[in-house]
Design brief:
The complex is a heterodimer.
Chain A (H helix, E strand, L loop, with lengths): L1 H19 L5 E9 L6 H12 L8 E7 L1 E5 L5 E4 L14 E5 L3 E8 L1
Parallel strand pairs in A: 1-2
Antiparallel strand pairs in A: 1-6, 3-4, 3-5
Chain B lengths: L9 E2 L12 E4 L14 E12 L2 H16 L3 E7 L5 H12 L5 E7 L4 H9 L2 E6 L8 H11 L6 E5 L16 E7 L6 H4 L1 H6 L2 E5 L11 H11 L4 E4 L8 H17 L1
Parallel strand pairs in B: 4-7, 4-8, 5-6, 5-7, 8-9, 9-10
Antiparallel strand pairs in B: 1-2, 2-3
Helix pairs in contact in B: 1-4, 2-3
The chains are: A alpha+beta, B alpha/beta.
């Protein structure tokens, strides 16, 4: 359940931004979560609701955008979509793949007042 | 009803505003008893771009730890595995086998108790226990605090035993040179396929408890094939903390890493 500590990190980001950007409440949170990032969106929603209770983001709406995974082959250079952390190159069957997208977990934007 | 999550608030804007655009309007869930729509709070929301990684704070602390370790020539390893793979026994045997040849210290991570740190101290090494409480992994900030308590020597070895958990510690950089994953032969061969994050993040796998292989149906070659399918660059040492098999290869790997860290 590392989603719990990620939600706590998220709260710290809100608290820091509230001071620098001068707001009192967070109403909508847009997160980008890569499909290869080991974060389960449902677990994140569950932990978000618990962690945000009694804070500046209580009852905030959590909008999770799942971003797709992608990779390239270190052997032949082919570029392709990936839905797991490992696999074989669809062109040359090499297992030597480099993940190029889908591991990010970040706060994109906040709607605040 | 709100269009996003079904809460009782009302999101007035139908779609997310483009980058840099102005405000959304969000009508809060009704708190008064009145059903009069005019009584409903209506507020103007401001959209701010944050674009910050959820792990940014941990990564910042990890960078500080890494810098601190590099300056002192310390070779740090983050040992990760499921609970019960034999991490602590392996550490105890490693400390005894090194017999003071390399100065070393240990950071122990567990949810509760000082048991593991006490085992390490009995084996003759300095150790600090971190109790993560409800936390399921070590984070770089707490490891940095533990490093300060340990008064680490220059050109030494730092072994960080993470919380027994094959999922969460994969994403949390502690500032280590390598993650070392321990898989024991009493687990399933297909664990690397089931929990690929950790095998993807590690540079070395220790296949532990190999002394038990004659009594089990575990296919060691298949387990290694699966692990290297997930991570083709993963090095593997077959080892037994109990019989001592593979210990010389593991100690040689540690000494080579220490020499590199000390020269860097």
């Amino acid at each position: 359940m590392h989603e719990m500590s990620l939600a706590e990190n998220l709260l710290q980001i809100f608290e820091t931004s509230a001071v620098t950007q001068n707001f009192r409440h967070v109403r909508i949170v847009v997160l980008e979560i890569g499909k290869l990032s080991a974060v389960e969106p449902d677990a994140m929603r569950f932990c978000f609701d618990i962690v945000m209770r009694g804070t500046l983001a209580e009852d905030a709406v959590l909008d999770i955008i799942e971003t797709p995974g992608a990779g390239c082959c270190r052997n032949c250079g082919a570029v392709f979509a990936m839905d797991a952390l490992y696999g074989l190159c669809p062109v040359c069957d090499s297992p030597h793949l480099q993940i190029t997208a889908g591991r990010l977990m970040r706060v994109k934007d906040l709607s605040v007042e | 009803m709100c269009a996003i999550c079904g809460c009782s608030g009302t999101l007035i804007a139908k779609k997310r505003p483009a980058r840099g655009e102005g405000a959304l309007t969000f009508r809060l869930p009704q708190t008064s008893k009145s059903d009069d729509p005019e009584q409903v709070d209506k507020v103007q929301l401001r959209v701010i771009q944050v674009e910050r990684d959820l792990l940014a704070k941990n990564n910042d602390y990890a960078d500080i730890n890494r810098q601190n370790l590099r300056e002192r020539g310390i070779f740090a390893l983050n040992l990760v595995s499921s609970p019960g793979s034999g991490k602590t026994s392996l550490l105890v045997k490693t400390i005894v086998a090194l017999n003071g040849e390399l100065p070393l210290a240990v950071i122990e991570g567990d949810q509760q108790t000082e048991h593991d740190a006490e085992r390490i101290r009995v084996a003759g090494a300095k150790a600090v226990q971190i109790n993560t409480g409800r936390g399921c992994h070590l984070d770089a900030q707490r490891v940095g605090q533990a490093m300060a308590q340990l008064d680490l020597q220059h050109d030494s070895l730092l072994l960080i035993e993470n919380v027994g958990n094959l999922v969460c510690p994969a994403g949390f950089d502690l500032g280590e040179a390598h993650k070392v994953v321990i898989l024991s032969v009493t687990e399933g061969e297909d664990k690397p396929l089931k929990y690929p994050d950790m095998f993807c993040a590690a540079d070395l796998m220790l296949l532990n408890k190999c002394d038990l292989l004659p009594y089990l149906d575990f296919d060691a070659d298949l387990a290694i094939e699966y692990a290297q399918r997930v991570n083709p660059k993963l090095q593997v040492i077959r080892i037994s903390a109990k019989s001592g098999e593979g210990m010389s290869a593991w100690l040689a790997w540690l000494k080579a890493g220490c020499a590199t860290a000390s020269d860097a």
